């Protein structure tokens, strides 16, 4: 891109997505508008339990339900999205009351409407995670490398931003930052740096209590401390990953052990976050290569 940021999202999408008008003109604008609406609603919402729990057994907050309803309303505006499922309602179902035959563009959306329930009470940054698949159904059973074509991380902090990753078939993939509600591109190309990292190194050890039962995790965390890594961990997957994207590097670790299962779900969390990291160049140079983001293990639930 030759323009200097910030510049309008529409011009950026026109050059990135010449051949998918529904994705460019309907799906992405509707989903980003929903993220803006969730941000606005969170500013004034009180936070309390809704009295219900989702299929995974997590207690639902009123703000989970509120975020879910904004995304569901956005889906109704997108004829090309045929089905959807979410962490709050994890059964994939038709989006539209009267389903239509899939056209040239046909998608299914998997989403986590509000990630970070445990830290929203103290008003830490939380996020929305969206994952778009290039098929009208069956997101869980499609190969992510070729079928997951877009992921969005909505970030609700002092600023509202969205990190958008696009990897259409036959393209390398790209990731960029949009500021909301203005819908302007503020970072046109997010790129993780290649190792070695010079200067401050960061680590984010999720599920840290697992270190008490798994000596390998204890050794790894001790290694980061000895090597003078700086701790940057909020407990929110979205802000913790976005921290690395903004700094250009960082380690995020979320191990699973017998006594301490992680809560990351493949469809709603790990696939979309992995797409963002890969589109930011995180896959360069092999498995432990570029970006210095290491995925130790994430369970396959969902
Ligand atoms: C939470 O923080 C945001 C800024 O990040 C602020 O606008 C909002 O008023 C805060 N909410 C409460 C309840 O303090």
Automatic annotation (TrEMBL):
| Gene3D superfamilies named among the record's database cross-references | 3.40.190.80, Fructose-1,6-Bisphosphatase, subunit A, domain 1 (3.30.540.10)
Alphabetized UniProt keyword annotations: Carbohydrate metabolism, Hydrolase, Magnesium, Metal-binding
Metal-binding as UniProt keyword: yes
Q: Which residue ranges does UniProt annotate as crossing the membrane? A: none
Q: Known InterPro entries for this protein?
A: FBPase_C_dom (IPR044015), FBPase_class-1 (IPR000146), FBPase_N (IPR033391), Fructose_bisphosphatase_AS (IPR020548), SBPase (IPR023079)
Which SUPFAM superfamilies does the annotation name? Answer: Carbohydrate phosphatase
Please provide the Gene Ontology terms (biological process) for this protein: fructose 1,6-bisphosphate metabolic process; fructose 6-phosphate metabolic process; fructose metabolic process; gluconeogenesis; sucrose biosynthetic process
> Where in this chain does the record put each Fructose-1-6-bisphosphatase class 1 C-terminal domain?
200-283
Question: Might you report a single GO cellular component term?
Answer: cytoplasm
Cofactor(s) the record lists: Mg(2+)
According to the entry, every stretch annotated as the Fructose-1-6-bisphosphatase class I N-terminal domain falls at: 26-178
The pathway it acts in is: Carbohydrate biosynthesis; Calvin cycle
Q: Which GO terms describe its molecular function?
A: fructose 1,6-bisphosphate 1-phosphatase activity; metal ion binding
The family note in this entry says: Belongs to the FBPase class 1 family.
Question: What's the protein called, per UniProt?
Answer: Fructose-1,6-bisphosphatase class 1/Sedoheputulose-1,7-bisphosphatase
Protein species of origin: Schizothecium vesticola
């Amino acid at each position: 891109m030759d323009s200097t940021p910030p510049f309008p999202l529409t011009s950026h999408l026109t050059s990135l997505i010449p051949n998918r008008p529904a994705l460019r003109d309907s799906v992405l604008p509707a989903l980003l508008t929903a993220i803006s609406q969730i941000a606005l609603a969170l500013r004034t919402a009180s936070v309390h339990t809704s009295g219900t729990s989702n299929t995974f057994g997590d207690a639902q907050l009123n703000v989970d339900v509120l975020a879910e309803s904004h995304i569901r309303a956005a889906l109704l505006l997108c004829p090309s999205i045929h089905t959807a499922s979410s962490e709050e309602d994890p059964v994939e179902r038709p989006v539209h009351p009267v389903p239509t035959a899939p056209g040239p563009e046909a998608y299914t959306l998997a989403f986590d409407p509000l990630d970070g329930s445990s830290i929203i009470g103290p008003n830490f940054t939380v996020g929305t995670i969206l994952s778009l698949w290039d098929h009208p159904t069956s997101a869980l059973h499609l190969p992510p490398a070729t079928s997951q074509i877009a992921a969005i991380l909505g970030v609700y902090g002092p600023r509202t931003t969205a990190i958008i990753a696009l990897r259409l078939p036959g393209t390398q993939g790209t990731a960029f930052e949009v500021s909301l509600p203005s819908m302007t591109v503020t970072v046109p190309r997010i790129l993780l740096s290649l190792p070695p990292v010079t200067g401050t190194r960061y680590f984010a050890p999720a599920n840290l209590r697992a270190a008490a039962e798994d000596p390998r995790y204890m050794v790894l965390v001790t290694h980061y401390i000895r090597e003078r890594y700086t701790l940057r961990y909020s407990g929110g997957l979205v802000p913790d990953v976005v921290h690395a994207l903004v700094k250009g590097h960082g380690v995020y670790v979320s191990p699973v052990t017998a006594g301490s299962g992680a809560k990351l779900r493949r469809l709603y969390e790990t696939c979309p976050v992995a797409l963002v990291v890969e589109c930011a160049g995180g896959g360069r140079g092999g498995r432990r290569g570029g970006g210095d983001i290491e995925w130790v293990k994430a369970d396959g639930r969902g």
